[in-house]
Specification:
Layout: H1 9-12, H2 15-42, H3 45-68, H4 79-93, H5 96-102, H6 108-111, H7 117-139, H8 145-164, H9 166-169, H10 184-202, H11 205-215, H12 217-222, H13 227-253, H14 263-276, H15 281-301, E1 305-306, E2 311-312, H16 318-333, H17 346-353
Antiparallel strand pairs: 1-2
Helix pairs in contact: 2-10, 2-17, 3-10, 3-13, 3-14, 3-15, 4-7, 4-13, 7-13, 10-13, 11-13, 14-15, 15-16
Length: about 375
């Protein structure tokens, strides 16, 4: 520059930006690959269970954030897509011998099918997308509290279907015998894919349209942006990853009932989303990690704590009360959540570790 001011190369070019992205991807991939390989002797089964729970929560919250945070459509029925993924994948992976006993009235074309974990999970996700598309054609035309109540109605409808469709879901009885296919590798592999896909989508042209619709619907329409298309795209992509999380959860728990996919689970996911920050992928991850860990600590404390000089008696159900109190406090003091709409800037972290050398600066 003519005045002698030096500009770092990452502001005028992209080589170091690409390097930072590759380094971040390699670091995260090494964690995903290394954890399953060494988890058997580095971590106990209890720790692995917590890590799997965190990974599934990350997928659920990041997926919901795409719809709630980036388009402004506050959905209360996304757990219904989780149920679709869980039941669909479980039926497809259930051993044939158990199908004859637990689901004797299945159609012939389905009674003789036993798939692998991945294709069953993908089919569950695609089915959720189809349902989301059909439901979204009408619901995504609504705004504000109307769409929230309408999506809650969808959740209630899903609950009624699950309880009364004995042929496919065993009704209100426990759906048991699901193969325990879920591992740390599967969970965190899908979590990385969901985070990356939604992060890239939020920064693409589609993501900018979603945010424009969220910030000012009338102004977005005046610019030629289709409100319906933006919301429907977010709704369907979110439904796919939510169904994937349902499949992972079902093959981890191996036994569940329709009650597992109702208001309690909905409140848990929304709490993670609001505390982390709507409109922030980083906030979704932070909220999922914090609430999962805090819930686990409080759940253990419910049995009572004896420190010698202080004895706290068992208070069963206290963890849910404290989580609700934390939820209210965050809404009061941090209405936008801990992260708001900000993101963790990994490039800045790498810049501190790998500072720009004089030879890389542009004069």
């Amino acid at each position: 520059m003519s005045d002698g001011t030096q500009v770092p190369s990452q502001r005028v070019g992209h080589p170091r930006q690409r390097l930072y992205t590759v380094l971040t991807g390699v670091l995260l991939a090494s964690l995903v690959v290394g954890t399953p390989a060494y988890g058997q002797w580095l971590a106990s089964g209890y720790v692995q269970r917590i890590l799997i729970g965190i990974g599934i929560s990350v997928i659920l919250v990041v997926s919901l954030n795409l719809s709630n945070g980036f388009t402004g459509v506050f959905s209360l029925g996304h757990v219904g897509f989780m149920a679709i993924g869980a039941y669909t994948a479980s039926i497809l992976t259930l051993p044939l011998s158990l199908k004859e006993v637990n689901l004797p009235d299945l159609p012939r074309w389905l009674a003789g099918v036993e798939m692998g974990f991945l294709p069953a999970t993908l089919i569950g996700g695609v089915l959720a997308v189809i349902v989301a598309f059909l439901v979204g054609l009408s619901l995504m035309r609504l705004s504000g509290p109307y769409v929230a109540m309408a999506t809650m109605g969808f959740l209630v409808i899903m609950q009624v279907v699950l309880v009364n469709w004995d042929t496919m879901t065993r009704g209100a009885r426990t759906f048991a015998g699901v193969p325990p296919y879920t591992t740390l590798w599967w969970v965190w592999g899908w979590a990385m894919l969901a985070v990356y896909a939604i992060w890239r989508l939020s920064r693409s042209g589609y993501g900018r349209r979603m945010k424009a619709v969220r910030d000012n619907e009338i102004a977005a329409q005046s610019l030629g942006i289709s409100v319906m298309h933006s919301r429907l795209l977010a709704f369907c992509v979110s439904a796919f990853f939510t169904a994937v999380a349902g499949s992972l959860w079902a093959h981890f728990i191996t036994a569940f009932s329709p009650k597992s996919f109702y208001f309690a689970q909905t409140f848990s996911v929304i709490t993670m989303l609001v505390i982390g920050g709507m409109g922030s992928v980083s906030g979704s991850i932070l909220g999922a990690v914090l609430i999962t860990l805090v819930s686990e600590i409080l759940r253990n404390a419910e049995r009572g704590v004896n420190l010698g000089f202080v004895h706290v008696p068992p208070v069963y159900g206290g963890s849910q009360i404290l989580i609700a109190v934390i939820f209210v406090l965050v809404i009061i003091f941090w209405p936008k959540g801990l992260m708001g709409d900000r993101e963790v800037q990994f490039n800045r972290l790498w810049e501190r570790l790998l500072p720009v050398r004089p030879s890389e600066e542009v004069g």
